[in-house]
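$ ./design --mode recover --in tokens.txt
reading tokens...
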């Protein structure tokens, strides 16, 4: 196995273990055993367990970039939310790890990284309202809608597993309907 393949295998196995067991309960020995490699390979590629974990958390950046770029094209908050929901379903392990770290950071370094990602995400959300001339929401209302919507995401995606596409499709319809009717109001979706 090449060095690149070994590194990718370590990341893949570690992601699965961190998702299932959490950061603190997963050891580098667990990862090495499951990857069928010597533990020194983890240290060679990542130095520490925390560095490996951060490498996995960074996988959220391309997910968020896709959400930002695709929704920016339409300029629609509705599209932004729908793409966000779809990406949560496509990347459940990364989303779960990220949401767990929002609730309880594993280290100060990881907390700083999570806080920065959260801030960038919120700023992007705000940009939809700043660009809309019809919108008269003040900053506190924008912040409240953000935390309401993404708090709902945290509740659903942080603790649920979905068995089939019917459940997913029904959940997407329920979420968008609830967000539309109860949080944003229909005038903001257009």
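writing sequence...
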């Amino acid at each position: 196995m090449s060095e690149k393949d070994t590194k990718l295998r370590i990341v893949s196995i570690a992601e699965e273990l961190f998702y299932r067991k959490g950061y603190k309960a997963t050891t580098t020995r667990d990862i090495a055993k499951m990857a069928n490699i010597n533990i020194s390979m983890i240290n060679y590629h990542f130095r520490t367990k925390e560095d490996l974990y951060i490498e996995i958390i960074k996988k959220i950046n391309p997910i968020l970039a896709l959400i930002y770029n695709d929704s920016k094209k339409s300029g629609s908050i509705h599209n932004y939310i729908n793409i966000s929901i779809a990406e949560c379903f496509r990347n459940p392990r990364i989303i779960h790890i990220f949401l767990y770290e929002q609730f309880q950071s594993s280290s100060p370094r990881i907390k700083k990284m999570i806080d920065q990602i959260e801030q960038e995400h919120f700023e992007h959300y705000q940009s939809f309202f700043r660009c809309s001339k019809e919108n008269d929401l003040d900053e506190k209302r924008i912040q409240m809608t953000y935390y309401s919507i993404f708090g709902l995401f945290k509740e659903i995606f942080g603790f649920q597993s979905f068995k089939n596409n019917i459940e997913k499709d029904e959940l997407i319809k329920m979420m968008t309907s609830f967000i539309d009717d109860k949080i944003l109001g229909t005038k903001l979706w257009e």
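exit 0
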